[in-house]
Amino acid sequence: MKLAIVLFSLLALSECLHKVPLIKGKTARMILKEKGLWEDFRKKYPYNPMVKFDPRFAVSAESLTNDADLEYYGVISIGTPPQSFTVMFDSGSSNLWVPSTYCNSQACTNHNTFNPQDSSTFQSTSQSVSVQYGTGSMTGFLGYDTVQVGGITISNQIFGLSESEGSYMYYLVPDGILGLAFPSISSSSATPVFDNMMSQGLVSEDLFSVYLSSDSESGSFVLFGGIDSSYYTGNIYWIPLSAETYWEINMDSVTINGTVVGCSGGCQAIVDTGTSHIIGPTSDIDNINQWVGATVDQNGDGIVSCSNVQSMPDVTFTLNGYTFTIPGSSYVTESSDGCTTGFTGSGSTEFWILGDVFIREFYVIFNRGNNSVGLAVAA
């Protein structure tokens, strides 16, 4: 009888763990380079990584930024019968939105669009939604429908349906965005997807975890409701949040060979799956690039010799007293036209964004139960 109870408990637990595979595919930068459009595009639409976190850029809403190096996305479905979409799972924003059949932008011509008339469970609202990008905005309206994410069926999920989108979205593979940050930054006070998962009792624990593979198109995932211990080694180090908006934490310093090269005296950092690079104040980032032997070009890219990558120094981030180290082989990206570092300057803004360059080295747990971020060395 006890064995039956244990087996039933394990089955119930496993049913509340839902893994969404993430595809590691082409970035907008890669696609634009293949078409010979990248240099003109980056001049016309300069990358501003801080737009996403700066309320001055918002249009009565949260703001998002154009990051041409994002490469991870997964599949969800909306409606009855379900309509499928690829989305970026973004811990730096809180809204779910996808293109709609009402969208008249070029960006919607090569992406899946949601047709409300084809869903028997769709409920429209009179609320508008507007999200500002570094290269334009997404505008549309809000509706409710059934959303399926990794085997989880969420009823009455509010989401945005785009009617217009910024031009750069045409070159992104994902159709839309699924935000995983807090309700406090949600546009139009729309309840985020994970909050509905929790309130509807669809996850066994109030947390989700992320593993980003660097070696192949497959292997990456977002796991809702639990932790998969086979994807990390050693201990999980828990870091309390300093704010319940983004996944924001206290960072003590950034060091190379024991010397402080950034975040001197402490600073704030946001762990963000929706940003590809490690972003920091330009003066600190320039210092880091100099220390690792990179030359910063006119576009702000840190250029290094591909033959030097293995000898480049580790960069260590100290968070809440714990040290997390990134080797040169992880913070340098090699492409057909050379090697660049994954460090990008943000201007004079003091806080940092720990994006995918950082996250790929660790198994990351976003814990809403105790408002903390857990980090363990990725297996």
From TrEMBL:
The gene is LOC108933638. One of its GO terms (biological process) is digestion. Residues 72-376 form the Peptidase A1 domain. Pfam families: A1_Propeptide, Asp. Shows particularly broad specificity; although bonds involving phenylalanine and leucine are preferred, many others are also cleaved to some extent. Keywords: Aspartyl protease, Digestion, Disulfide bond, Hydrolase, Protease, Signal. The active site is at D90, D272. PANTHER family: BETA-SITE APP-CLEAVING ENZYME, ISOFORM A-RELATED (PTHR47966), PEPSIN A-3-RELATED (PTHR47966:SF22). Residues 1-16 form the signal peptide. Belongs to the peptidase A1 family. Disulfide bonds join C103-C108, C263-C267, C306-C339. One of its GO terms (molecular function) is aspartic-type endopeptidase activity. This is pepsin A. The keyword Protease applies. The keyword NADP does not apply. It comes from Scleropages formosus (Asian bonytongue). Gene3D superfamilies: 6.10.140.60, Acid Proteases. Coiled coil: none annotated. It comes from the Eukaryota. Its EC number is 3.4.23.1.
